[in-house]
Amino acid sequence: MANTASAKKRVRQNEKRRTRNRVWLTRARSTVKQALIAIDTKDSAASVEAVNKAISELDRAASKGVIHKRNAARRKSRLLKKLSTLEKGK
């Protein structure tokens, strides 16, 4: 348990930041999941739109510092790789 005033304030700040970051992380994960589902349905137009939305959310989360920029880049790369296999399969 925090003893000093500064440690108590730190606890309050950390909780506030955690809840704020949680929103962006959840949004990014949800859009990635939706993109993967769209890719699995083999609908090219919907997949491209879903992947673009997921990329946007990942970039937004990275810009806010919720995830590292390389983490976002890796996730985007994997999404685009799966999307390209869908395009090649046609």
* Main CATH class: Mainly Alpha
Order of helices and strands: HHH
Number of domains: 1
CATH topology name, in short, is Methane Monooxygenase Hydroxylase, Chain G, domain 1
What is the name of the CATH superfamily? Ribosomal protein S20
Can you walk me through this structure?
This protein has 90 residues and is mostly helical. It has one domain: Up-down Bundle (Methane Monooxygenase Hydroxylase, Chain G, domain 1). 84% of the residues lie in helices and 0% in strands. The protein is built from three helices and no strands. The longest helix is centred in the first third of the chain and has 36 residues, at 5-40.
Q: Topology, please?
A:
Blueprint: H1 5-40, H2 44-63, H3 69-88
Helix pairs in contact: 1-2, 1-3, 2-3
Brief summary:
Helices cover 84% and strands 0% of the residues.
Note the main attributes of this structure.
84% helix, Methane Monooxygenase Hydroxylase, Chain G, domain 1, mainly alpha, single chain, 90 residues
